[in-house]
User: Fold this.
Amino acid sequence: MTAMYQSVDPPSRSRVNAGRLWAGGAATAVVAGLIAIVGILVGRGLFNVAVLAPKGAGVWGDARTFWYALGAAMLSLVATGLMHLLLLFTPRPMLFFGWVMVLGTVVAMLAPFVTDNDLGSRMFTAGLNFILGVAVGSLVAGSAHAAVRPAAAQNAPRPYR
Assistant:
C-alpha cells in the first residue's frame, strides 16, 4: 500500500497588533521612567546613597536624574521595537527576547562597577538597573502576548480516498 503525500502550505504566522504592542511599550516607558525616579529618591532620601549625583546635590539631585529616567523610558521603547522585529521575523520571539533582556540587564548591572563612585552607590545603582530590567522585560513581553493573535486555523485537508 502506498501513502499519498499532499503538499501542505507553510504554517501561517500569527498576526501582530502593532498598535496594541506600541501602546504597551509607551506605557512601559512611563513606568520605567517612574521606577528610575522613585529608585533615585529612595536611594538618596532613605539610604543617603549618592545615586548618579554628588551627595551635596540633595534628594532630587541634578540633571542626571532626568537623563537616567529618560534613558530608562527610551530603552523601554527600544525593547518594544526589538520585540516587534522578533515577533515578525524569528521563530521563537519570546525566547530570543528573554535572552536579550537577561544579557542587557546583566550589562546594566555591571556598568556601575566601572565608575569611581563609592561602593554603596555602585551597589544601589546595580540593584536599580536590575529592577528596571525585570520591569521592562516583563511588561514588554506581556504587551507582546496581548498583541499577538494566532493565525486563523485553516481547514485540515481531507484524506484522499
Summary: The radius of gyration is 22 Å. The first helix runs from residue 18 to 46. The helical segments are 18-46, 63-89, 93-110, 119-147. Strands lie at 15-16, 148-149.
